[in-house]
Amino acid sequence: MVGPAQPRRTTLRDVAEAAGTTTMTVSNVINGRSSQVSAETARRVIAASDRLGYRPHAAARHLRAAKRMAVGVVIVDPSPYYLSDPFTAAMLAGLNETLGRHGYSLILQGVQARDLGTVPMLRHIESDGLCVVASGSAKERRKILSRIAGLGQPVVVVQDEAAADLDDSCAILLDDSGGARAVAAHLCERHLRSVVMLVPAVEWPAMVRREEAVRRVLSSLPEPPAFTVLRCAAEGFEATQHELAGQIDRSGLPDAIVGGNDRMALAALKLLAHRNIDVPGRVRVTGFNGLENHLYADPALTTVVSPAFRLGEEAASALVARLKTGTFEWRRKVLPVQFVANRSSQIDADRSSDKKRPPRAFHSKQGQTQQGE
Length: 373
What we know:
Elements: H1 12-19, H2 23-30, H3 39-52, H4 58-65, E1 70-76, H5 86-101, E2 105-111, H6 120-123, E3 129-134, H7 138-149, E4 155-158, E5 169-174, H8 176-187, E6 194-200, H9 205-219, E7 226-232, H10 237-251, E8 256-259, H11 262-274, E9 284-286, E10 303-305, H12 308-325, E11 330-335, E12 338-341, E13 360-363, E14 368-371
Parallel strand pairs: 1-2, 1-3, 3-4, 4-5, 5-11, 6-7, 6-8, 8-9
Antiparallel strand pairs: 10-12, 11-14, 12-13
């Protein structure tokens, strides 16, 4: 005897025909990749799916849900030389070390914003979760992060708060504002008539925080100094020196030069040395990040020690915990930094006492976390 015929399972093709679109579009919507589809099309797909009672095939769903034991790291940077940055390298080392300890591999992809849609790692979903470091204006970064979040994977955003309203995400950053305030306050211990700050033309959220903090401190003085921000074509040696040399030739020497990072501060020190300009007697110079390269400075560079390696560790730990428990333990965390005043900005100490006097240090407030909702 033949039993009653079983009802035919609704397929992606059925939903696509009912919604007036393609099976690929239906798959994108069903699998949480709605950012690749217009809002109206997504609504039609969802309505058709509900009306037809479509349910993804269990085997296919299992394959999609299977762990790949890999975490993707996306660095949105217009420069192909992003790995030459010491801060980025240290942060990635912290990520990799922690992920490896938990059995995850790291898939790294540097990309320009305009090419984000062509990245194989994102197109084929080759990871269990993502860490993202993005450049660009706040509006551009929100667009980038929203697109990545639309892939349906948990996301840790590094050094940026542009994704504060995204679901299944958290942001981890350093206290760049606190460190920059300490730099500015230190320089203001002596009267300043002019200050130049070196930053890259590419907008990074950490640099924005540093610039804004320095500007606020200087503008609060009874007699605010002239504050000039030089946006260099790149963070490297030649681009930084080119912009600074032009500024000095046009406007004369400033009282202080604030490097947005140590690389730019070191380029400034070399240019001043080449021109036989005394540091710190004539110009005081500071940097930011405090990684190993600042140790090669002469005179010793005043800087802010940023725990880049720990930043990577914390980002990896947050994502691993999310993959285990299903939720992020916190939505926002700020790691402390340490300001260290060295010879390059200390004009009240003679050179003979350099080795006897320990550098002044400032610790920013301890790490802050904001719980997830």
